[in-house]
Amino acid sequence: MNSQLIQQGRAAYRAGDFSAAAQMLGAAKTPSEIMGEADHLRGNALMHLGMYAEAAEAYAAALNDGTYGKRGALLTNRGKALAAVGDYVTAAQAFSAATQDASYATPFKAYLGLGNALFQSGDFANAGTAFRQAAIDGANPAPAAALGELGRCFIKLGRPADAVETYRTAIDFAGPRDDTRALNAGMGQALSAAGRPSEALDAFNAATADGIYQLTPEQADELARVHDSLAALSAQTAMATAPAPAMDTTAVDSLDPTGATGQFMPDPSDTGFFTLSESEMVQQDRQDRKQAKVRRRHRHTGLKVFLVLLLLIVLAAGGLGFAYTRGMGIPSQESVITDLFQAAGDGDTAKAESCLASSLSEDAKAMIISSIPQGATVSVEGMDQSMTETTAKVKASLSKGGEQEYTVKFVRSDNHIGWAVSSLDIDFSAADNQ
């Protein structure tokens, strides 16, 4: 084994002279000699040169060196080389073996290669499984590409709805390394297959908006089908909304009894016009006017109902707004203070705290609850209300007789609709406090 040629081959490879690197590394050892690193680098150089079959042989030789390691990387590279020459069956075997190497740091590369080989072989279900594994691999810095390939599998499997959701997730996860144009083109295919041509057209337009991405032949065919579908839908809509065919509008003389100008006068046997007496004409005129009046009334009924409903909604909204500015709320101040005293008296601390303002500290909440006597019944004696704050005078009837008065302040609760207690102070100025 020629160590000098190996060193020169490494230097040439690092310098990007792949042709020289492949020649030097190939000449540095005989075919019977085993050196995984030399064959590995030679395989990489051959891949850069497009000599895929020779690269696959070099990787196979490197795999014979059990002391070299890097089995997962070598198998993945060999799979890529085999796939490049169209040997997808053997390539899939290499990729599958690479995924079994527990020391391989980037298994998503093997799963991506495996998915592509299986897809090219027509095994779309197992290809989708491989692409899914690539997408969920935590080491994969660009899972969106794998999700895009999974979407292709769903389309091939006749599951367009799943394909749409997969492409949508891929676009959400897309990063700087991902081609969102290709993902949008795939989304267009999926939406078209799902029978959503308008959305499909939007996706295709997003893919080609900047003029950089070129649709694949398959995608171009799908876009043509989208245009055909939209054209057919437009034609159907036009037919459904088209007015009834008009009568012949050729200029005629309406007084021509012979029809020489293209229009005949009414036939007495068809219309009865010429057989009506004067009284019958008057009666007919009255009936026509009555029917016209009914038709006008019917035409305006829907408008009147709409206007009445709109007026009621406006009045209700105005009433609610006025009530809110006057301090109304759900729950009301009376309901909140009653629930607070009841819960505190029963020892239900959680319910009592739900009646208090969330801005209060835990110590402040505990002090308010502890100041409420057990068994007391409470009533609101007076209240000064505004839109956001309320001050109330509250009287508590004690269980053993006597009364206690409090000054209670309320603020709007977190939902801005109801009320919550922000402070509760004993009113010692009341003469009958005990």
Assembly state here?
A: single chain
Query: Got a strand count?
Result: 4
pLDDT < 50 stretches: 248-278, 430-434
Provide the gyration radius in Å.
43 Å
pLDDT averaged over residues: 83
**What percent of residues are in strands?**
5-15%
User: Tally the helices: what do you get?
Assistant: 18
Largest sheet properties: 4 strands, antiparallel
Straight-line distance between termini:
108 Å
Structural class: alpha+beta
Helix % is 55-70%
Shape: elongated
> In sequence order, what are the helices and strands, one letter per element?
HHHHHHHHHHHHHHHHHHEEEE
SSE diagram, text form:
Elements: H1 3-15, H2 18-27, H3 36-48, H4 52-63, H5 71-84, H6 88-98, H7 107-120, H8 124-136, H9 143-156, H10 160-173, H11 180-193, H12 197-208, H13 217-241, H14 268-271, H15 278-325, H16 333-346, H17 349-354, H18 362-370, E1 377-385, E2 389-397, E3 403-412, E4 419-426
Antiparallel strand pairs: 1-2, 2-3, 3-4
Helix pairs in contact: 1-2, 1-3, 2-3, 3-4, 4-5, 5-6, 5-7, 6-7, 7-8, 8-9, 9-10, 9-11, 10-11, 11-12, 11-13, 12-13
Architecture overview:
The chain has 18 helices and 4 strands. Residues 248-278 and 430-434 have low confidence and may be disordered. A hairpin with a 5-residue loop joins β2 and β3 (403-412). It has a 4-stranded antiparallel β-sheet, covered by helices on one side. By secondary structure, the protein is an alpha+beta fold. The chain starts with a helix and ends in an 8-residue tail after the last strand. It is elongated.
Give descriptors for this structure.
single chain; 434 residues; alpha+beta; four-stranded antiparallel sheet; 8% strand; disordered C terminus
